[in-house]
Specification:
With 514 residues, this protein is of the alpha+beta class. The chain contains 17 helices and 23 strands. 39% of the residues are buried.
């Protein structure tokens, strides 16, 4: 076993081990076992405890196929955690009485360390974790690889919105580009965000990976051929992420539509997947091409300040900033009504929750500490929560906190204090119902983190005009085609901006095109 490197990486990063049943399912679905018997070289580049190679051996035994040294020499595992590989070898010994060849086991980080082998087929389940959730030291090591694989345009972007890029996207690009023989194929379990995520995964959808040549500019095209999304079956218990398995081919350009299967009444139903507009856009799912409705257009004249926004984000400090009842001991000029589900369920406009925003309404900037000191109760309240607030994480938040504003929140600016908001439920829904919220006793309604999104308006007439335009029935139809129904990205600002697409050539105002 090649253990040329030692790692200080958390063994649990992105760990979603594949159950044996589903390792066999993927192998049988794509004919991987038969290809192995016919001479193909197979590699699992993020092997964990070797669910896929073990499944191959179990299938061989079930079929009465001899497990020969020559066949074992065409099964390769790459894994970053030594203990996982030791467990695999122990399992093979216990279950098959075999010593799996050490020459076929590599303890490596497949992203950062070179691997000499080339394979006909890759199979596996890469780690599922956003870049922003990785340990700080490992993020620093990976940043140049995100740039190299064109997942972000520069290193700074990995610190901003693109920190939501899943490390699975990087693993795929690295392994497809560097480990496959010419015209090789790969079969993987994946989070579907790689195909449907907004800006964070557009770099994955350029369908180009760095090759194994000496030059940085050496590129290999790859294409997604077929996808099966598990819309009802639980392959990975306890995982909230939506996932699929997908077939990739290298050295071929991406063509659309892609065959896309979803589950219905225990059967797979075929759909077509194609990008929203541009090739790197999120995919939309349709039953047939007649659903495209390419002539449908919605135009809304909006100012640059009116781009869709998420609600206020406390960055893990809900218990400090959000209240079930309006607290009488805090200055009411900093307490704002917080949107809740009752607005849409019951049509009621009185608050069920309140949020504390120690901010200037006029500028959208946080109060300075000498200003907070003018209110004894506010000062005391924040001081009591100081340790909790200072321990919050997040690059953008830390930037504000490094300026001394440890009571800051995200998603607060002049737009948060617009007198009217056209607001909708953005998370986990399958209906799109914009409503207008104004203020309670002069205090503007606020959206709650990713649960809500809104367009700020500075007059009631403007708000009504925007609301009427957003009630176009084509919008929820397209949101469903974008595969967001019931998911966390149902109608998030990035998706709405994609649907409406700012026309930046306008001068006096910007036009949204649908």
């Amino acid at each position: 076993m090649d253990t040329k490197t030692s790692h200080l990486i958390d063994a649990n990063i992105g760990k979603v081990f594949t159950p044996p049943k589903w390792a066999k399912w993927l192998i049988n679905k794509w004919g991987i076992f038969d290809a192995w018997i016919d001479g193909a070289r197979i590699c699992d580049p993020t092997a964990g405890q070797g669910a896929f190679p073990l499944a191959m051996l179990h299938i061989a035994r079930q079929k009465g196929v001899p497990i020969t040294p020559e066949r074992l020499a065409r099964l390769t595992l790459i894994e970053i955690v030594p203990a996982h590989l030791e467990q695999f070898r122990e399992n093979v010994k216990n279950e098959f009485g075999l010593d799996f060849p050490a020459s076929q086991i590599f303890c490596q980080d497949v992203i950062t360390e070179a691997h000499a082998g080339k394979y006909d087929i890759l199979v596996g389940n890469p780690p599922w974790v956003n870049f922003g959730d990785l340990p700080t030291a490992y993020k620093a090591r990976l940043k140049p690889f995100f740039v190299e694989e064109e997942l972000v345009p520069d290193r700074q972007k990995t610190l901003l919105g693109s920190s939501r890029t899943d490390i699975a996207a990087l693993v795929l690009k690295v392994t497809l580009g560097r480990l496959l023989k010419k015209n090789g194929v790969g079969y993987f379990y994946l989070p579907i965000s790689l195909f449907f995520g907004d800006g964070a995964h557009s770099g994955f959808r350029n369908y180009s990976a760095r090759g194994s040549g000496n030059g940085v500019d050496s590129r290999r095209d790859f294409a997604v051929d077929t996808v099966y999304e598990f819309t009802s079956t639980k392959v990975f218990e306890g995982v909230g992420t939506s996932y699929c398995c997908a077939e990739f081919r290298v050295d071929t350009q991406q063509n659309f539509p892609v065959s896309y299967f979803t589950e219905l009444d225990g059967k797979w139903v075929e759909h077509k997947a194609l990008p929203l507009k541009n090739p790197t856009d999120p995919w939309r799912i349709i039953k047939d091409l007649d659903e495209l409705n390419t002539n449908t257009t919605l135009e809304i004249s909006l100012s640059p300040e009116q781009k869709p926004r998420q609600g206020v984000n406390t960055c893990g400090a809900n218990s400090v900033f959000i209240f079930d009842h309006k607290p009488s001991h805090l200055p009411e000029q900093f307490l704002y009504p917080l949107a809740t589900k009752e607005i849409w369920q019951q049509g009621i406009s009185h608050p069920h929750k309140w949020i504390l925003l120690p901010y200037h309404q006029q500028t959208g900037k946080p109060l300075m500490w000498h200003e907070i000191e003018q209110w004894d109760t506010l000062k005391e309240y924040l001081q009591n929560a100081q340790d909790a607030l200072k321990s919050r994480k997040g690059t953008l938040l830390r930037s504000a906190m490094n300026r001394g504003n440890w009571w800051a929140l995200l998603g607060v600016g002049p737009y948060a204090f617009a007198p009217f908001k056209v607001i909708w439920q953005a998370y986990g829904k399958n209906h799109f119902t914009p409503v207008i919220l104004s203020s309670i006793d002069g205090q503007m309604w606020q959206g709650n983190q990713a649960m809500h999104a809104f367009i700020p308006c500075w007059s009631e007439h403007e708000a009504q005009r925007v609301k009427t335009a957003l009630e176009n029935p084509e919008i929820p139809t397209l949101l469903r085609q974008l595969n967001g129904a019931g998911k966390c990205n149902w109608a998030q600002p990035g998706k709405i901006k994609k649907i409406l697409a700012f026309d930046r050539e306008e001068t006096d105002s910007q036009i949204l095109l649908f």
